[in-house]
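Before going further, learn to read the protein records used in this course. A complete example follows; check for yourself that the lines match position by position.
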Amino acid sequence: MCTGRTWFTVAPTIRHELTGTKPALVSGKDIFPHIAGSYGDATNHNLEFGGPGLASVPMNDRRTVATQAAEVSADFATFAADDARREFLDAHTDRPYTPADADPDADYADVRRIDLSALVPHVARPGAVSRNAVPVTEVERRAVDQCFLGSCANGQLEDLRIAADTVRGRTVAPGVRMLVTPTSQAVYRDALKLGYVEAGPRGLPARRRAAGRRAAGRRDPGRRQRVKRPSQRRARGRVSGGLLTVLRPGRDGVHSSR
């Protein structure tokens, strides 16, 4: 830390060869739970993602997958430097960079082939993420008391767009709260401009991961509740304890208040 340099052991790498095309209703928060549920922990390993299917995974979903890698105890998560990444970097920086692609003869601890076109939305059940995620069709229907959208895993602009499109023209069920914490102030401002949320009577400083987890933990004391949230962790009986946006869907979009 003092010198500005550090070192890491060179851990073995697990390659995820992505094929097919990601369905429109499948996101990074479905890709990663599928991997975690199917393969379990990757302790002291690096996760690498590539293959022809990667082209259908946008940058926001790649960030979500990379963020979630820590939940299976992986050291790093890397993605091949394809056209999508190059376009993103060209739009955000003018500094030169050198892609760190894998060697053609790279040796992998395991190679996993993931057919993206076969994936469906997933749910991670309460408790650990590893070996605990299933397709949403395998989870019994049940009422919820609170829905939370946010954290560094799912508070990006595209996540807010999906949420706004989902609730537009609908109303939140009586007795249910829908909470959102944008990933950053920039995301919150962009969401305002695009009409995904509307500013309430009081300003809302968007926070990152910690605030998202505290916001998700705001429940009525003394009452057992079911909370649906896309955050990284879902400890049974506890949703860590901020500032948040309460979404009130209306005909023309989603209205927010603190």
